Fold each of these.
Amino acid sequence: MAHVEPLTRAGTTHDLTGRVGRIGSGSAMLVLGILALAGLIGLILKVMSGPVPLNKWGYTAAALAFLLSTGQGMPVVAFATRLAKGYWALPLRRAAELGAVTGLVTTPLFIVLLFQLPDFFGRPSIWFDWPGGPVLWDSVAMILLTFTGLAMLFVSSRPDRALSTQQASDWPGTGRQWDVLTAGLVVLGAFYLMMLVFVHMYVVSDLGMSLVLGWRSAIIPPYHAVSGLQAGLATTLLVCGALRRFGGLRRYFGLDVFWGASKLLLGLSLLFFYFTWSELLTNWYGRTADEQFLLDLFMFGPYTALFISSVLLNFALPLALLIWNPIRVSVRGPIFVAGLILLGNLIDRLRIFVASWSVAGPLGPHRTFAPPAQYPDALDLLVFVGAVSAVTFLYLLALRFVPPIAIWEFKTGLLLTAERPYLKTEVAVVAKPQ
């Protein structure tokens, strides 16, 4: 095995600043850009054809919820590990914060969907006919979430951009600047988490629950938020794995990154089961006409396969795999589980929003039977693929301007880490000054 030189602060700065603009091939970005443009054209065609029939918007709403859960869930990983002083996560924080660019796609997509909703006056919802709801307040919440995420990315990358552009005079690095930087990231992260939970509630309530007459659940909004955090962490792990494999960053994304994240992934998988079981149990024991209809629509009717797949991929398989040390304490194991969870989240969002929009309509008698499963058409697939491609394109574009790892945070970790002999090996000892 080839000898690997230990990481030094000077070597880290030179290596990572040299990688700015080199991750992501031009041909890949061209393909992603074409797919994103095709998706935009598909969305325009949908809008021009009018809001009805309402069931044609189910897959577009699922695409929005999926991107909100995955891409916009990523910055929370950076905030949570920064707040808890999890030094194992230093290499992944920049990758997580870059997920904020997802908001540039989800915000206009959300606003478009809000204008396709049926009349909300008199409709049971969280707004109770409040003026401006849901279009105005949902839009404001999503815009604030996107702005906060981009502000986190801008503030976090400020010292690194000064290094990579050779404009250190813009960032002399005074003590006050560092104090404002570290405190500001915590404040922005807390506000981002708060807004993310609110937006999850608005999305699943206004684009899901309010469309299904008789669906009154206090469990679904936190379920949507928690499963979104799980998907955000899974997406972060997959991105780190891709940067490690294809970005030449193997030295930075070591075992500790994936091992530490796998513990959080296991806990979030257990929370997924808790909320799923709570929703199932409530409707199962209530057995009113509306609750029986909900069980048929979302779990045991036309979307049974999606429900079972979601539980398997988000809970059963991650639990069965991550309880074993050889899988959890590895690089490939957590990445594989993260891929399962990402697929499971996609299936879960399709189950919730496609089913909800399939029964959307004006106020009237409550339904007693679920309609057949709604399958995607060409425009649905075009919009879905285009939205995901647009986010990937923006992510790679952002990597052309900022280093893939937060240099200033990583170098802080090097300052606080020392190798010490322990029995027949050496272990890393990390000092925690605060």
Note: The first helix runs from residue 9 to 18.
Amino acid sequence: MGWGEIRERLRDADLTWSFRDYGAAAAMSVALLPAASVFLWIIDLGNDDYGGGYNMLAVLVYLLAEAVLAPVVALAQPLALTLPSVLLARFGRRRLGGRTWAWHLAAPVGPGIAWGLLAALAGHSPALTIPFLTALGILPSLWVAYVRRRTWRQWGIWGRAALISPVLAVLVLGGGLTATVTGLIPRYEPPRLTTAQLAGVWQGASGARLRLRPDGHAEATKLPLADQKSDAGFSDYTMCGGSGAWKPDDTGRDGILLRLDCGHATHWAFAGTEHDPQLFARYGDPDAGTVWILRRSG
């Protein structure tokens, strides 16, 4: 059996896709970018920003990244998620019958599981990646099936997808914020650590080490502490070692106030979780500074 005959049989079984199918898949994949970005931002509200924030530069970088990603998504997402879903939907409907829209709604689960399991090898949770990837494949798959019954040209396909894009983003934003306010998506809350939980050794990058004793004494090695302010008014840091004292400090975010023989008194805030606590200090620009994180040793 030659390749030509194989292609003919696949075409007869409706298991091929055309350039028009690919264009429809690419159009809706790009249209989903803003909504997907909004969704990831809302999910990120459940993570610790370590005292950082957003500024105009970050927004501009985000918009630039969206523009750069658009052609990449238009090329890759249809091949990885949408077209496999479309072929799976057509195969299932031909073999088992049923409504076209129902098969195109269910079929993205297959590629979503496949790519989610591959992502698990890189350390990503399948419980998050599989639903997310499946959701990314649903609308493009339905869009391909819908466009197939229309006589639109490519510009019409892309134009209508562009009109749908902001609507999807607003719907995701509204639903996500509602879920956050009602507690369905919990916002991050730092742990509340007692003196007993704080006592012990904390370690960080570049050999940073801090020992906190229950009586309020502290010993440090290669630990960054606040130094004089820069010309921009932000606190720099200097590497310190030696002994000093610490005490609980609820100025701003709960944490400790650490004083050593060098540097200035520095606020180390609580981060992490009750089971995996952290201490952190941010130096420089609050929106783009340096964050030092200490983790409990042992």
Note: The chain has a mean pLDDT of 83.
Amino acid sequence: MDAGREVFRRQDRLTARAEPVEAAFRRRVIDALIAPLRALNAVEAVWEGGSAATGRLDAFSDVDLCIVAPPEATGAVFDAVESALAAIAPIEHTWRVDPPAFRDMAQRFYLLAGAPPFFAVDCSVLAPAGVAQFLERERHGEPLVYFDRGGRVRAVPLDRDAHEARRRARLEQIGQSVPVYALLARKEIARKRALEALGFYQALLRALVELLGMAHRPERFDFGLRYVHGDFPPQVRDRLAHFAFVPDGDTLAERIEEIVAAIEAQRAAVTASIHAVP
């Protein structure tokens, strides 16, 4: 069977889960983008990541397009993307992410006039040297490949040794940073500056989310609050909501003490689990 035809059949199966209007618009955008990108000789491959790759596609999903091209072709690639999108609908807003979240990457978000609510195009141009980190199956799912001139775009297993080293390093950093953030949060409460205390409290919340991630989704412990609805058990999500939604400054003082205790308990549990592995 023709590989491209099979990709679009898979895309049809995925978009069938979305509402008809959203699915049709999404497919129209993708169809409009693939041909001009294929016409650029510098573009080595195009695949869709995000919800299409992880099986989470719904009526609210963006198009997360990954385009492999050398850095010197980035401008031409974005020109082609923007021309294709403008042929569908006016581009109402563009966010040129600077600096990008990763090396060897350029990223832009596009919002289109008349698009379904919450729809965006997240377009990343990846240098060939930076592709591998976006293809780890346990973190990013199965790429939906639209074309791949070199036949090299495929999901690969997570490098567990390297990932475990990152997890242990982050665990150590959390252990060192939490007493400092706690002190700073308490200090601002004592000064009656709850708003400033909130900034340090949010750092404590991020630490707790990462620790819970190490327990419940170790391959994606560093994804923050992304995907917690599907990755964390309901009681864990409820506990996080208790810490996340602080009604006022007086309650914040109580939450600081609660979250520090929760962090220390969770850090001890994660540390014990690491040491228990032979």
Note: The chain has two domains: 3-148, 160-272.
